[in-house]
Specification:
The chain is of the alpha/beta class and 317 residues long. The chain has two domains: 224 residues, Spore Coat Polysaccharide Biosynthesis Protein SpsA, Chain A, CATH 3.90.550; 68 residues. It is built from ten helices and eight strands. It has an eight-stranded mixed sheet with strand order 7-5-6-4-1-2-3-8, with helices on both faces. The two termini are 19 Å apart.
Length: 317
């Protein structure tokens, strides 16, 4: 029988052959006080270097290691989803494979979980990244995410997190949504905490993140907001989308009556006002009907009660 696993560490890997030996040594040192009740799942996101070979060699000398290998590159979020699906631990910890997260912080996150929290997010209060391309966009994104989701997390982009397994089992994630785990968890009633963690300069290779991710993160933020706030009341969401068009109708009618007293079809302006009012009215009706249809779909399918899972093609070695 396999040993009882309390802690599962999920590490997405993409071209980190130089970092892996040092990273695993640090993880093993940090988790040594927990005996054999831990495992590390390295998820190889179709690395182009020798990362897979290094992971398999490390596994030969350490039975705590499990290796997942993607058939093609799926991205960090998919790698985490695969790790969540295969994790056996009572608590799941995530961290980057580039040595910028410090595994020595893992016990502190686990202690916070034992205090009764469901998810504990790391906060890289002192960062060792470039200011213009990394820190400044991160500051702006974190404030926007905190404002939209109403979850006061300072550093949503920090991969170092600890969470209860039953929590991640019920959180389907895709695209760039791994950074929204605290917000998604809070939406389901989870208790969220934050701890300042150590952040280190990158020692090997180059960062795989750039300013181009901002657009994808913004779109995912809209998705998360809809899922967390309106999944139970889709009619309210579509009603809000209809409000600008209701305002447009009021403006058009107000301008028309203020200047001519009545709308006359004999003038060009009259045609413009009537057609605009009709168009805006049809749009309002469209959104209202979409909201009613969404309500029927949610009620009929029980979609908010079902458990969803992210399916990725992976092989376990």
């Amino acid at each position: 029988m396999p040993p009882q696993i309390d802690i599962s560490v999920v590490v997405p890997i993409c071209d980190e052959e130089d970092s892996l030996p040092l990273l695993h040594a640090e993880i093993a040192t940090a988790l040594a006080p927990y005996g054999d009740a831990w495992e590390v799942l390295y998820v190889n996101d179709r690395s182009q270097d020798q990362s897979l070979a290094v992971m398999l060699k490390l596994r030969e000398s350490d039975p705590h290691i499990r290796v997942l290998h993607f058939r093609r590159n799926f991205g960090q979020t998919a790698a985490m989803a695969a790790g969540f699906e295969h994790a056996r631990g009572r608590v799941v910890v995530t961290l980057d494979g580039d040595l910028q997260n410090d595994p020595a912080d893992i016990p502190r996150l686990l202690d916070k979980i034992e205090e009764g929290y469901d998810i504990v997010a790391g906060w890289r209060k002192v960062r060792h990244d470039g200011f213009i391309l990394r820190r400044l966009p991160s500051i702006a994104a974190n404030r926007l995410i905190a404002w939209v989701t109403d979850v006061p997390i300072h550093d949503t982009g920090c991969t170092l997190k600890a969470m209860r397994r039953e929590l991640v089992e019920n959180l389907p994630i895709y695209a760039e949504q791994h950074r929204f785990l605290p917000a998604m968890s809070a939406g389901s009633g989870a208790r969220v905490a934050e701890l300042v963690v150590n952040h280190r300069a990158r020692r090997f290779g180059e960062s795989k993140y750039g300013i181009g991710r901002a657009t994808r993160v913004a779109l995912d933020l809209m998705t998360i907001k809809m899922i967390s706030s309106f999944s139970q009341r889709p009619g309210q969401y579509f009603g809000m989308l209809a409000m600008p068009f209701v305002f447009g109708i009021i403006v058009f009618l107000g301008v028309a009556f203020a200047n001519w007293g009545i709308i006359t079809l004999r003038e060009t302006w009259g045609y413009v006002v009537v057609m605009s009012v009709m168009l805006f009215s049809m749009t309002c009706v469209y959104f209202v009907l979409l909201g009613l249809l969404a309500e029927l779909v949610v009620k009929a399918s029980g979609i908010h009660d079902q458990k969803s899972r992210v399916l990725v093609r992976s092989l376990e070695y």
